[in-house]
Structure to design on (344 residues):
């Protein structure tokens, strides 16, 4: 923890002094840290730093501390090392990152850990670009809370960033956004009366199978987004049969996730090979790849380790992983994607 003499400034910086739950550094070093790097909160003759800011300054600004300082502060905050690593990584691209505990007159979501400004932008006069939350990889995922936070952050015009720390103290960074889904395939509303009569007659002739049903077809099947052609007929999954029967009823269920996506012009195929409910196509299956892997919130991962696995698998096959949930009766799709500062 102690600085090597060859690295130290010619005149050693002062040791941080504990004051009112934070750590005091005096001017002039304090003024430089606050003005140029957005560190600490201004006070008389200096600044007050969070403990993880002190570690950042030790690693990057030659502020002296020793092992006794770390030991005593770890006994107070067992997450100190994780917060310090996150704070250091968040600033690795040159961005200004300020913990919300240092912001008294700035609007941010109540569960946000820190607010970030773009590199070469003034945190005094320019708007920030994002808000940051962090989790341990073994933490459970509170999907309603995560969605509320995302909605709040987006309403302020900011990106939502999540930093996940694993047991090895490595950090994986994610950006969370809402994804808009649509497709160009015909849906039920595009069918003619004759098409609907044909579908109705076909359903009456369905032969049950272990996975759904089989319809022998002599003519063109009018609902191309539903079913897969095999053995001179159409094979339907249970969910596809339910969709058709619902549409043929006097009170169709248009609020189910399956119905919502199909009515948007998407084609849904099983996502078994990709560890999700569906792979969703916006174009014909024979000419395109599915851009989305969709997981209903009822089947969504329960911890960040599982989210990491799902997102890495999806991006490994060039797809976006989406969690689908309803909010005030409207379906929303939360996309979680990995990112690196300065990369994307």
């Amino acid at each position: 923890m102690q600085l090597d003499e060859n690295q130290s400034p010619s005149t050693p910086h002062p040791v941080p002094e504990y004051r009112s739950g934070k750590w005091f550094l005096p001017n002039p070093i304090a003024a430089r840290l606050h003005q140029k790097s957005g560190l600490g909160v201004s006070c008389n003759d200096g600044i007050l730093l969070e403990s993880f800011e002190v570690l950042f300054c030790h690693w990057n600004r030659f502020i002296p501390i020793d092992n006794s300082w770390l030991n005593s502060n770890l006994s107070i905050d067992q997450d100190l090392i994780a917060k310090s690593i996150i704070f250091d990584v968040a600033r690795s691209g040159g961005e200004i990152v300020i913990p919300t505990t240092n912001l008294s007159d700035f609007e941010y979501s109540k569960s946000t850990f820190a607010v970030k400004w773009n590199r070469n932008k003034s945190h005094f006069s320019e708007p920030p670009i994002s808000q940051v939350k962090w989790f341990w990889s073994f933490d459970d995922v509170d999907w309603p809370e995560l969605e509320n936070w995302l909605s709040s952050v987006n309403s302020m015009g900011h990106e939502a960033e999540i930093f996940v720390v694993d047991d090895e103290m490595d950090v994986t960074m994610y950006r969370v956004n809402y994804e808009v889904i649509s497709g160009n395939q015909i849906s039920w509303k595009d069918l003619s009366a004759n098409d609907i009569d044909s579908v109705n007659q076909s359903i009456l002739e369905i032969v049950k199978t272990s996975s759904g049903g089989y319809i022998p077809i002599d003519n063109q099947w009018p609902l191309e987004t539903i079913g897969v052609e095999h053995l001179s007929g159409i094979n339907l999954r249970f969910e596809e049969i339910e969709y058709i029967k619902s549409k043929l009823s006097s009170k169709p269920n248009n609020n189910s996730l399956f119905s919502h996506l199909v009515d948007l012009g998407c084609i849904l195929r099983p996502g078994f090979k990709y560890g999700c409910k569906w792979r969703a196509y916006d174009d014909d299956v024979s000419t395109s790849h599915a851009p989305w892997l969709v997981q209903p919130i009822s089947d969504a991962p329960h911890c960040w380790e599982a989210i990491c696995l799902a997102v890495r698998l999806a991006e490994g096959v060039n797809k976006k992983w989406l969690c689908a949930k309803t909010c005030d009766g409207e379906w929303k799709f939360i996309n979680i994607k990995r990112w690196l500062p300065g990369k994307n």
About this structure: The mean pLDDT is 92. Residues 52 and 87 are 7 Å apart (CA to CA). The longest strand covers residues 330-338.
